[in-house]
UniProtKB/TrEMBL annotation, chain A:
It comes from Caenorhabditis latens. Pfam families: F-box, FBA_2. InterPro entries: F-box_dom (IPR001810), F-box_Sdz-33 (IPR012885), Zygotic_Embryogenesis-Asso (IPR053222). Coiled coil: none annotated. It comes from the Eukaryota. This is F-box domain-containing protein. PROSITE patterns: FBOX. Signal peptide: none annotated. Residues 2-49 form the F-box domain. PANTHER family: CYCLIN-RELATED F-BOX FAMILY, F-BOX ASSOCIATED DOMAIN-CONTAINING PROTEIN-RELATED.
UniProtKB/TrEMBL annotation, chain B:
It comes from the Eukaryota. Pfam families: Skp1, Skp1_POZ. The keyword Cytoplasm does not apply. This is Skp1-related protein. InterPro entries: SKP1, SKP1-like, SKP1-like_dim_sf, SKP1/BTB/POZ_sf, Skp1_comp_dimer, Skp1_comp_POZ. Residues 130-166 form the SKP1 component dimerisation domain. SUPFAM superfamilies: POZ domain, Skp1 dimerisation domain-like.
Amino acid sequence: MTFRLFHLPQKPLLDALRCMENPELIAISMLSSKCRETVKSLNLSLKRFVVTVNRKMSIYMIDSVDSRLRLSVSGIEMPGFRLNGLRVMTIGGSNDWNFEEIDIRKWIENLMSTYHCPEITSIEIQRTDLGELEDEYSFNLVCHAVEGIKVRKLNLDKPMNPDGIAGKYAQNALELFSKRTKYLSLSCNPYQREDPVKIQKVLMQNFNGISSFGPFSIDDILMTNSRTLRLNSSKTGVKDLNRFIKLWMAGSNPRLRFFSVFDREAEAETLLPKLLRGVPHITINKWRTYKTIVMGDEIIHVHNNRAIKIRRKDGREATILYITLPDDNYIIYIIAISMLSSKCREIVKSLNFSLKKFDVTVNRNMSIHMESSVYSRLALRVSGVQMPGFRLNGLQVFAIGSSNDWKFEEIDIRKWIENLMSTYHCPEITSIEIQRTDLGELEDDYSLKLFSKYAKFLTFDCNPYQGDDPVKIQKTLMQNFDGVKSRVRLSIDDILMTNSRTLNMHNSNFGVKDLNRFIKHWMAGSNPRLEFLDIFSKEAEADTALAKLLKGIKYRKTEKLRVNEVIVMGRNIQIKWSRAIEIRRKDGKEATIDYIPLTT
Amino acid sequence: MSVEPEVPIVQVEEVRENPVLYKIISSDNHVFTISEHAVKLSKTLWDLITNLGLTAENALDNPIPVENVNGKNMETIVQFCERHKYDEEEPEYTNYIREFVLPEWDRQLLSIDNEELFQLILATNYLDIQKLMDYCCRVIGDMAKDKTPEELRIIYGIPTDAEDDALERSASDSPGPSG
């Protein structure tokens, strides 16, 4: 006997789904679009979504509560890359699923959308010389499955022969992905025997991090434009590194914050004089731990008792650390620290703080109100925003119990907001409040035009188009909002133009006749997305209001105690009613009307 | 309000520690007594008691009719509330209620067939008893363990997209309510 899960009211349904593990949730989300939307509304998120391509395609997911899940995709059939089976592995065991054929790409997109995953964390290409046909198939599979989807890291870590088929395969992968990934991890230089210009074209992209077993020449390194660069083997000798340091001090590799290289020198004692020949520097003999983050999430600790400080001509400083290893191997680290904030930001970011709210208020100043997920409150008021470059050189910081003024070097306001959001892992601005009133040319209609196309919810206190052509406000209202809350008087025609899921009209002053007209329009099919309408109406005689409201409308009265849940302006609200009027529109959709007579 | 019971009163558990008792009448006219601590687990009932101004003196003379819950479900609910009335308040689960194991007593109580469980959840939702809701949901969640998509389609009676569309079409063809 079946359990009618999807006939449950919304709250118990979601509670029941939250009791399931990831494999079951994925399985349910695959059953129908209604199921997928319901699982999606649980707001589950992932820490990692890794796609590995070898003989099969595997997907490795780590959700934000740390349970691990690996989906190994099998049964992909040529020519349509269609999937009819999966092996699902979790810490506790594995299970084989068979189902109707699905396109692999559609399946990956569904999975990412269900888990609100904006990008693939990493694509790991693990093919090794298995034959040209198989490589071609596997490469076409990757193209089909993930082309156009954002990818954070490309990983070509598995050792491969750069001269063989796998080398060609790696070159294809680099050409396909290197322009749209932030991080690049390479087991080798797949263009080793070819024209160096090709690998340099890859390296000169604005990566956030490159990690490689190389080997790269110093000219290749000088072409990189990555923030962090870690070379585990290199063609560079100490002389080359000396040349690199000199060029860095003259201004090359401006984005570089961290560089490490692992190499070999015949005589360890002569290493330092060769490295620093002709380089102005100071030596600091002190035990210290240096900590930095590379490739987005790997923390590198270096303990050393001697550091060499150098400074380039634009004032940026760097620390050079070197460690000699047995067998005359050595590692050299160059850590540029003058842009202290980027290093600090990565470290603070790794604390995984998150926010409940990131509200931006624009009045005479711009203020940012942040509410962290552990309830502490913090408001930042941005001052010193300078035209024309919108650059910021000061902040007033308010926290519970204190306020403080900060002054710093100028930063672009947009970059600053992006950094703040990235540090706190905040995917979107929760709310933008525009509080400008008649201060000049920057009027409210400008803000409405600017933001209404991206926002899910719209709250407004005045109609900037008042007295003007009503078509303008209707153009705003007809956007697909999830919720609109208005304190201005709109006409019934304005409301008929809305396409929002919920509407709160808090300062409306409609007559009951207007509402009767609206109900009739709704029953005939207008406002098809509307799920909730909260509206005030004024009528001289409360007793006759209901009769007028329902004139000419087919309805049914009910008097049982019911509880409904609706999501209004992003919040779950519960409505309890003991009497209500039910109506049905011609497409079968039903609505419940309740009314509360007020004394004034 | 007083209603003559048509069936004998079901005394679920004698309450010695707290003398305040309330009477509840189910939709099929079964009468149940429940202690104050137990009834507080139901937000709906407790709101009703507070709004009606029921006190220790007049509580038993004013039975509370609950028209949406039948006697069978009410009996389970009263048993559950009496069992858990002194439990420590648990933190509210905002997003995840995953990590807990159902106690044996409650597993026995909820070992009922699927339709009965469905009706019990509707009643629990109506009476707003979070703990019982969490436990019922755990039972539903456990049904899904290690099942494949097609097995889950059968267990939960989930229609395909095509079946959903057909259902919607047939709903829109049926006549609407009339006044």
